[in-house]
Design brief:
single chain; 231 residues; mainly alpha; 7 helices; elongated
Length: 231
């Protein structure tokens, strides 16, 4: 059975954290926009239109930013792998000693470190050095398009919650229903983000919920002020 490398495991955890944070960003951003327009005494149609516009703009912004970020990271990783490949071709003995030294620093004896280094080098020298020295899995580099799509999707997954609440709840209580729905989503994503990062769930949930509520309250207040001023 193939055992996933540390680099691969870390990448999966980063993906999970990014997805949860993207959903949090979506639900907070769009619910705040809706609160701001509602505070300005906007109609349900205006509120919904602003929410949809915020969802589309946010998803595109997230996708673009993630694509650029991951493309830069991938270029850097590929450059490091090319450098490592050249060093393995030009000075294999020095690279073998370097790999053995890494394993010695982890607590292996000199003899065991050299045995492990030689066996891993014989199996896949580049993969062994990339994992030990760079914490990179050369066979599992992040695809910028996948990252962009995942980021946009997670944002939309969060953003759709306040939009659905506004769309289907009775007009007289649609803001209240939306606020409750948003808080529930923030509690769930706070728990998931804490699990992904190994943090304390209670503290994470409190931070996420307070941040989301503060964002909605501030934008609602801004909407009230601008609405009262006739802007």
């Amino acid at each position: 059975m193939h055992k996933e490398s540390n680099a691969g495991i870390n990448a999966r955890l980063n993906w999970l954290r990014a997805a949860v944070l993207g959903a949090q960003d979506g639900v907070v951003s769009v619910s705040s926009i809706i609160m701001g327009v509602a505070g300005a005494d906007g109609s349900v149609r205006a509120i919904f239109a602003a929410g949809v516009a915020g969802m589309v703009a946010g998803a595109l912004s997230m996708a673009t930013g993630e694509y650029v970020s991951v493309s830069t990271q991938r270029d850097t990783e590929q450059a490091l792998l090319e450098k490592e490949k050249r060093e393995l071709e030009e000075m294999p003995e020095q690279e073998l000693e370097e790999l053995a030294a890494i394993y010695r620093s982890k607590g292996m004896s000199d003899e065991t470190a050299h045995i492990v280094a030689r066996e891993l080098t014989a199996h896949d020298a580049l993969a062994a050095h990339a994992d030990a020295e760079l914490n990179i899995d050369p066979n599992d580099l992040t695809n910028p398009w996948h990252a962009a799509i995942a980021s946009a999707t997670s944002f939309v997954a969060g953003a759709i919650i306040p939009l659905l609440a506004v769309m289907f709840a009775p007009i007289s209580i649609h803001i209240t229903v939306m606020s409750v729905a948003v808080i529930i989503v923030l509690i769930v994503t706070g728990i998931l983000s804490a699990q992904a990062g190994g943090a304390h769930k209670g503290a994470a949930v409190v931070r996420v919920v307070l941040g989301g509520v503060a964002a909605m309250a501030i934008t609602y207040g801004a909407g009230v002020l601008f609405g009262a001023a006739g802007l």
